[in-house]
């Protein structure tokens, strides 16, 4: 089996980050149109009905643009697990589906130039489905696509870039038309830093490297269309689905006459030339580098007296952040130390040449607060000693919410103000007792005022229709508030006085394409960032004279400004990341623009919604596909084939797996079903298992030759209380029969029951993290009229820094009573689809050991390891019945699932486990040593 489709799915999914939001046991409903089944929980019903109004029309339009219409209904699952804008599509031939996250993008996003979030999301994800789920015209490939997951395999830049092209061509907006996106590409071009072809699909080591598939990929494809015609790209996709097999490069070259790599180099050359020609017409910046960071920064916040500046610093290649407070004074000490080092070096070698002096000596941080969970948002000063900010936290169900916190360095530390309120863009009042914030819940957004003493929220402005709101703020010395509003495809700056709203005339400058980061300087003027065809810059808006003045040069991609009385601080973005610049506030670029007078804002009309009955979800629509697995090691050579199926919200999952081992050591059948439509999970299984260890090297049970069959019923419940404690309880019972061919005994009855408890937790401070796991199982049964009891206990802990982790643990399995030989503990063998944890047969797997490498009634295991991401090196020591220790060393790559979002939406691969490893094992009393081994395991366990 090729792993390429699985790995491609991982790349195509836009996000597979933290835990899921809506649970399968929630009250799911389904709204059907001619072309869609839309699945939602009650809080998203209005969002779903508004989506449904134009959904069929949009799908047909997208299909016409791409040149392929789908032949089946599409399932849309509506969620909001992360409280950020996202979604993903699964473009599988004959079984396409997509997941929408309802939280809309904000004004500073590359997604901000849109008509409305529902439409952009639907067009982009539907483009993936029409583009990539095109069936082959080859009969053999069609059969394979019907039985297994299949889709058009194109480079990531072509998949994401083309969907981004379609999102733009749908209504002229989207990322390719966003002034921010164009400014990013021009900035990279001026630096000679546009990605090469190999980097185009994604480069983790480059700033915005994973976004270039969308930004640069779409720009390249639009250039190809302009040079070769609008029919050229659909022709490539048509050629890829031909009876004659062609990969992307062959199909591309047949249309364009050249390889995609060669034409891309030409496109880069033209883009760079245009960017440099435009740069020659730009004024030189008057700003100087103040803080060099070279990755992500937030909007800076100056203290009231201008002596301190706070902002978020994002670490490279991760979501980890630090909230840092800097002094705004220069850092002469750092410069002096640098000069001393240069002088010392020249003293040792007078003929050497000193380094050129750095552009800036970064200020030394006064205080730092590392992230404690996931993302934080830009801080604001609440008073001279206290910052207020938002940070994402998980609730009891694993859903992520942005809540407000205060931080007082050296004082009361961090204090949480709200719980599960989804608040961002906090803006405190001068009195320090209240603050405005943007609340985004269930696809709706509004501005609220927070009483900082009690945490009480009071709605101030409700979004109407498709409106998006952003950056609320109190106008100094006034009863007015200001905010950005997106309406009818444009961003607008609004002044609101107790519901009486005025719209400022910024649309005459850029048609509302990119307007962001408004911040009051005083009661008569504010700073903001505007995009135009020439670039992105920071401006001062003088409300007294209704005049707009540009403050920064287009040679810098300047955003997110703040200022004191004399100095302007702003974020500048380039291919290395983001840094902070400073310049005189009085500097002005070009002539001021006089704006039209503010206009009164009228209410918008309510959005239409589909008035059709939504039906209970029940077991939902079902998908099924073949599943393949393998188990290869020196002691086991097995292949697996089966069927897997389920619904797109993960209520019902089932699988039928057959495992065949040509040596006959371990093989059989397992049928499993998992129901999550209730708060308590229900598991049901039927199994047939053959074990014949005769002729197996290294086994302590060469006489074992048995057949087992039986049924299992299990229940499970889990709850998360905090980062530090998640609890899972499970119980179940198994009825089995055993045929012992070695002793010619058939029909041996076995009955057993078990109860499990597992506790997990983690802690995080910046890049440091810690984890623990505690587990216990009590089981009891009767085999061949002999009663037994078994008690298992596990404890493990890990300490991590970044992607590295140091771990250790201990496990003890103890079999008591009067167990039969069929109940004894057996160490060794690989995990397969036939080895679920509930199976009462005593096997404790380890792929570096043969089946039944050790046999007994008490097994102890000590382990330690060092891991980096999914690769782990380990040392394990086993002891059976107080005998000699068996050491095992090894290294293993492990993939368990595709991430919670994909596992929910993709029943065809739910429960996937992949393990690749090699190890060495010592003396087990049969072989001294067992020696080196390697293993490949691909299997599925629900």
Written account of the structure:
The model is unreliable at 1-20 (pLDDT under 50). With 942 residues, this protein is an alpha+beta fold. The chain is built from 13 helices and 51 strands. Helix 2 (45-66) packs across helix 3 (117-132) and helix 3 (117-132) crosses helix 5. It folds into four domains: 1-153, Zincin-like (2-Layer Sandwich), CATH 3.30.2010.30; 310-316 and 370-459; 463-613, TolB, C-terminal domain (Neuraminidase); 641-940, Porin. The longest helix is centred in the N-terminal third of the chain and has 22 residues, at 45-66.
**Main beta-sheet annotation:** 16 strands, antiparallel, barrel
Task: Give the CATH class of the largest domain.
Answer: Mainly Beta
Query: Structurally, how many domains make up the residues?
Result: 4
Number of strands: 51
Structural class: alpha+beta
Which geometry do the CA atoms define? globular
CA-atom Rg in angstroms = 31 Å
Can you give me a brief rundown of this structure?
Helices cover 18% and strands 43% of the residues. The chain contains 13 helices and 51 strands.
Q: What are the main properties of this structure?
A:
disordered N terminus; eight-stranded antiparallel beta sheet; 942 residues; globular; 4 domains; 16-stranded antiparallel β-barrel; Zincin-like; Neuraminidase; 13 helices; alpha+beta; WD40-like Beta Propeller Repeat; signal; 51 strands; 6-blade_b-propeller_TolB-like
